[in-house]
Structure formats: C-alpha cells, structure tokens
UniProtKB/TrEMBL annotation:
Protein name: Phylloplanin-like
Cross-referenced InterPro entries: Phylloplanin-like (IPR040404)
Key words, A-Z: Signal
Leader sequence residues: 1-23
Keyword set includes Signal: yes
Native source organism of the sequence: Sesamum indicum (Oriental sesame)
Amino acid sequence: MALKPLVILVFVGAMALMSVAEAQNTVGIVHVNGTLYCTADGSPGPNETATPVFSNAAVQVACSNDVVFNSPSNATSNGNGVYLVVLLPRPSPSIVASVVSNCRLFVRTPLSTCNPSLPSAALVSSLRFVRSVQVGFAWITYMVATGFTLQA
Ligand SMILES: *[C@@H]1O[C@H](CO)[C@@H](O)[C@H](O)[C@H]1NC(C)=O
Ligand SMILES: *[C@@H]1O[C@H](CO)[C@@H](O)[C@H](O)[C@H]1NC(C)=O
Ligand SMILES: *[C@@H]1O[C@H](CO)[C@@H](O)[C@H](O)[C@H]1NC(C)=O
C-alpha cells in the first residue's frame, strides 16, 4: 500500500545520514591557533618582531547551542604567545558555519597581567575558517581569531 512513500522516506533518510557523515569527515577536529601579543587588542601592531607577546594567558573557546562536544575548551599561550585550542564539533550538515556562528575565542587572563598599563580586561574574538586539511584518514580544520576586542 504505502510502500513507495516508505522507500522514498528511507532513501531521503539515508541521504541525510550520508551528508552528515561526509560533512563530519571533511571537517574532523578543529584547531583554533594563533599568537597573542601584549597590546591593547592582542594583535601584533605594525612591527610584529618588536611587539612583546602575551605568555601564560588562559585561552578558551566557548560555544552556545552545544555544537562542540568539549566546550568550553581551554589552552594556555606558551612562552612565544602561541596558543592552540582543539574543538571536537558535533556532526551536523554545516559544521563550519555552526562553529563560526556559535563559538567565540576568549582570553580570560586580564591584559594588565602582561603589562600593567593595559586594561584589566579580558578579550573576545569571533572565529574565521581558514582551511581543512586531510591527515591520513582524518581531517583537521583550521580556524583563527578574526580580531580581539576588550570584553566589558
Ligand atoms: C596555525 O597552525 C597552522 C598549522 O600548524 C600553521 O600553518 C599556522 O601558521 C598557525 N597560525 C598561527 C597564527 O600561528
Ligand atoms: C622592527 O623591530 C625590530 C626590533 O626592534 C627592528 O630591528 C626593525 O628595524 C623594526 N622594523 C620596522 C619596520 O620598524
Ligand atoms: C575549561 O575550563 C572551565 C573553567 O574555566 C571548565 O569549566 C571546563 O570544564 C574546562 N574544559 C575542559 C574541556 O576541560
């Protein structure tokens, strides 16, 4: 009787699952990385090599809407100001878009920690997709901060 609609439904369901699996496969885990500088907006300024870095800063990516398994995900900037936060996104048909729209990168350690003349405030930035790279059977998707602003 209702065999045809059922077959169509199963077929549509299988297509949806496949596209989810495919989206997950080409995104994999997300690496959010960069270098923090000890400036009013955490950016290098005009002379990158002359700008002091912000070491030992607590960095965190926090997401709304449960798009990432391990949110909030934490890291600390190293002696060169370099940080790497790893995110494990939940499968969805548009993982990159949902991570970009739901997740923010925070610098929780106040700027004044690296230079007392800077504000005693945290920083926040949106994320930007850079590229997805295949590593063996897995994928790594790179994202970076779009630019920090002081967090009120
Ligand atoms: C982030 O990591 C990638 C891959 O290791 C590297 O090519 C890139 O230069 C890093 N970005 C920053 C801002 O450190
Ligand atoms: C940047 O700073 C370095 C180290 O202080 C200096 O050697 C270099 O000349 C500066 N570059 C510019 C373009 O000002
Ligand atoms: C990151 O740190 C916060 C506290 O600032 C903690 O609640 C959270 O569980 C940590 N995240 C992970 C993945 O350990």
